[in-house]
Amino acid sequence: MSVNVTVEEIATCRKTIKIQVPVEDVNAALNKVTDEFQKFATIPGFRVGKAPKGVIERKYEKEIDEELRRKLVNESYENALKEQNLHVVGHPDIKEVQVKRNEPLNLEVAVDVAPSFTLPEYKGISLNRDKTTPTDEDVTKSINAILEQHADFKDVTGRPVQMGDYIIVDYTGTIDGKPVVELAPNAGMLSENKGFWLLMGEESFVPGFCQPLVGAQIDDNKEVTVKFKDDFGQKEVAGKEAVFQVQIKGVKAKDVPAFDDQFAGKIVPDKTAAELRDIIQKDLERRNELQADSKLREEVIQELLKKTDFDLPQRLVESETRQAIMKMVSNNQQRGVPDTMIEENKGEIFETANKDAKDRLKSIFILIKIAEIEKIEVTQDEIATHVQMLSDKFGMPLQKVVEKLREHDQIKGIYEEILFGKTLDFLVLNANVQKV
C-alpha cells in the first residue's frame, strides 16, 4: 500500500500526521476484504465460498466497510510511521474517518513522539561503591533484632509500673470536656481505646502521656493531662490541652532470649550460636552487595539526568504524574496519614510527583537510546526465565501467569524491566567505580 504523508509539529514532542491513500489502493483493499468474506460466507442457495461477489457485498456491506476501515487505517498508519521514521509513544489520536469506495482515504492522526536529544558521555562515569563487609556492630544489631522478634511478654507482679514496661490500658480523651473525635474526626485513636498496648517511653503515644503513669498499679485509674505540640500531626488539636482518663489493665515486661546454642538450634536446626552468627554475617554481606549495586545504578541515573536536558511529551508527563500521585497518596494512607493532611499538602505532593515523573521518563528515554547505540537486546529466553520466576514466586502455574500478564498487557513491562536492567549493568561495568 502506497501512502502520501505530511507531518506537522503542533507542540513539543507532538505531531499531526496527515495520510492519503490513493483510490486504487482503497479499491484494491476493498476487493481483498470482500474476497475474504466470500471464502467463508454462508448464503442460502449457494455452497460456502461460491456465492457471487455482488450478493456478498449486499449482505455484508456494513461488516465489509468496518473491516476495510480497520485494515486501511492500521496499514496506512504503520506505513506512515516507517516512512517518516517516527518513534511514537502512547496511543495515537485518530480523527473520525470515513472510508468511501472509489475515493481516496484521508486520515489525520495526532501522536506523541519520543524526544530528540544528544546523549552525554555515558562511559567512564565516576561512581562510589559502599563497603559491603558488615562490621561486628552491624552483625550484633541484626542478632538483637532477631532476639527481639522472638521475645516473650511476661506479666509483671509485685511492683508498680516503670519506664520500659509494656502496659495494657483503657482510656478516653477529651478536650474542653468534649471527646477528641468531635474536634478531630480523623483522630479516633486519641478519643478512646480499649486493651491498648503501650510501651512506657517519653515519646510513646502522645509525648508526656507515660510519665504520669509511672508508679501505678494494675486496676488503678489515672487522669493524665497532656498538651499537644504546635506541630502535632492532627492540626485540629495542635497546641491544645487534652485530658485522658486511663485505667491500667495489665503490665508486661519483655523477656528477650539469650543468644546461645539452644536459641540458635531453634532458629536453624543443628547450628551453634557461632555458626548462626556466621550465617547472619554472610546474609548481611549479600544484602549489602545488593544495596551497593542498587545505589550504583541510581547514581548512574542521577549523573545522566544532570548532564541531559530535553522536553518531554506533555500528555505522557501528565499520565505519569497522576500515577505517581496515586502511589504517594496510597502510601501515606497506609502509614495512617489523615486525608485532611493529604489534602492540605496536595500542592507539595503534586510538585514532588511531577518531578519524579519527569525524572523517570527522562531516564527511560536515555536508557532506551543507550541500549539502541550499544545494541543491548532482550532475548525470549530472558523473558521466559523472568516469567518462570514470577510463577515460582506466587506459586501459580506458568500458563496462568502468562495469561494474567497478557490480560493486563504486562509483557512489554517485563521486556523493558530486563532491558533497563541490562543497560544499567552495562553502564556500571563501564564506569569508574571507587570503593568507599
Short description:
The protein is an alpha+beta fold. The protein contains 14 helices and twelve strands.
Mind explaining what this structure looks like?
The protein has 436 residues and is of the alpha+beta class. It contains 14 helices and 12 strands. The protein has helices at 23-40, 53-59, 61-84, 136-149, 180-183, 188-191, 261-267, 273-307, 314-334, 339-344, 346-373, 380-394, 398-407, 411-429, and strands at 4-11, 14-21, 88-94, 105-113, 126-129, 152-155, 166-175, 178-179, 192-199, 221-227, 241-255, 432-435. A hairpin with a 2-residue loop joins strand 1 (4-11) and strand 2. Helix 1 crosses helix 3 (61-84), helix 9 (314-334) packs across helix 11 and helix 12 (380-394) packs across helix 13 (398-407). The longest helix is centred in the middle third of the chain and has 35 residues, at 273-307. The mean pLDDT is 92.
The ordered H/E elements are EEHHHEEEHEEEHHEEEHHHHHHHHE
As a percent range, the share of helical residues equals 40-55%
The largest sheet, given as strand count, sense and whether it forms a barrel, is: 6 strands, antiparallel
Say how many strands there are: 12
Flag low-confidence runs: none
Return the structural class. Answer: alpha+beta
Q: What share of residues are in beta strands?
A: 15-25%
Global Rg:
33 Å
Number of helices: 14
N- and C-termini, Cα separation: 61 Å
Mean pLDDT: 92
Shape: elongated
